[in-house]
Amino acid sequence: MPSRLFASLMLAILLLIVPAAGPLRAQTSDAPESSLPDARAATGGAQTRDDIMARQRGEAIDDTFRRTATGDPTHAADPTGQLGTLGGVSDAEMFRALRYGTANITSTDHGPASDVIIQDGGMSWLVLRDGRLAKYGGWLLLGMTGVLALFYLLRGRVPISGERTGMTILRFGGFDRFMHWLTAGSFILLAITGLISMYGRPWLIAVMGKDAHATLAMWSKLVHNNVSWAFMLGVVLIFFKWVRFNIPNWNDVKWLFVLGGLFNDSIHPPAGKFNAGQKIIFWAVIAMSICVVATGLSLMMPFRALVFADVFAWINGLGLPALVGAMDLPVQLSPQQEMQYTQMVHAVFAFLFMSMIIGHIYIGTLGMEGAFDAMGSGQVEEQWAKEHHSLWYDEVKAAQASTPAKPDPASSPAE
Q1: Which of 64, 99, 134 is the last residue of a domain?
Q2: Same domain, 169 and 251
Q3: What is the pTM assigned to this prediction?
Q4: How many domains does the chain have?
Q5: 109 in a domain, yes or no?
Q6: For residues 294 and 214, what is the distance between their CA atoms, to the nearest angstrom?
Q7: DSSP 13
C-alpha cells in the first residue's frame, strides 16, 4: 500500500507537469502506415501542414512516416514515385536517423549521452519549464503570500491570552538554534538563487541588462550548488535531534480537531515539545528535502543517476496511468530526457517546499506573539509555554523540581 501511494503521488506530479506523459518524448505512435491520412498518402508519405502545426502545438502525431524515412532501402520510397529516393542518403534522412537514434554512429567521447546528437525533448522541456511550471509555481508562491496577508488582516496576531508572568523558560538551546538557522539560512539562499534561475531571463534582463544578469546568474548557480551542502547537513541534524519529539500521538488528534486554537484565543489544546502542526511541518520538511536533495544531486552530477525510466516502468506496472485514463509513461528515455524530468520534478518540489516555508515563517514571526523568541533567544515567556505547549512545560517544571538546587557561592559562610 505505501508503494502504491507513493507511485500515485509521483503520477499526479508527472501528469501535472507533463500532460498525458507526452511532451518530453518524441511525438510518436505505433499506428500502421495503412492508417495514414489521405493527404499524407497523396504526397508520397511526406508530412502535411496539419502534421507540422500539431507538432508545434505539442500534440502527439503518427510520425511513422518520418521515423522510418532514414535511407533504409527496405523503407525507401520508390524511385519512380513523387518523392522517390534518388540514390544515397539525403541530409534529411541522415538527421532523422540521428533524431530517432537509429543512425550507426561512433563517438570519441564514451561518456553518457555523448552519442545522442538530436533529441526531441529539449524544446518541449523548455516550453513546459518557462510556461506552465514558471507560471503556476509563481502563482503558488504569490497565492500563499496573499492568503496569509488576508488571514493576518482578518484574524490578527495570535496573542498570549493569559497574564504574562515575567518569567522565561528555555525552549531551545544553542545547538538547536544553530541547526535551525543553518537549515533556514541555506534554504532561503537556495530559494532566492533558484528563483533567479527560473525567472532571471524573462524578468531581470529587462531591468539590469544582459551582462549584469549573466554575472548574477553565474554567482547564483555557484551559491545554489555549494550552499546545498549546508542545507543537507542542517536537515540531517534536525532529523536526528528532533525526531523523537515528532512521533504522532493521540494529543495531536485533539490538537487538529480544534486547529490548535488558531481561531479562538481561549482554546489551548495540550501539546508536547512540538504540537501537531509543527510535527506536520517536520515530516513535510524531511520528505521534501529527500526529494529536492535527490533530484538536486542528480542535476549536479548529470547522467550518473538515470532513474525515471525504471520509476515510470514501475508506475506503469501498477496500472495507475490506465486508472486515470492516461497513456503509459515513457520507459525509453535518452539521458537528456532523464535530466529534463529530473529538473522538472526538482522544481515542482521546490515550489511546494517554498510555499510551505512561507507559512512556517509567518506563524513564527507575525502570526503568533512570542513564537519567534523560541528560535531567537531560546527563552520563551512561561505563559506562552503553558498555552501552546502545556505538556512540555509541565515536564520541564517537574524536571527542575526534582533537581537539587546548586548552592550560591556568594551566600556561603566565610571561612
Answers
A1: 99
A2: yes
A3: 0.77
A4: 2
A5: no
A6: 27
A7: H
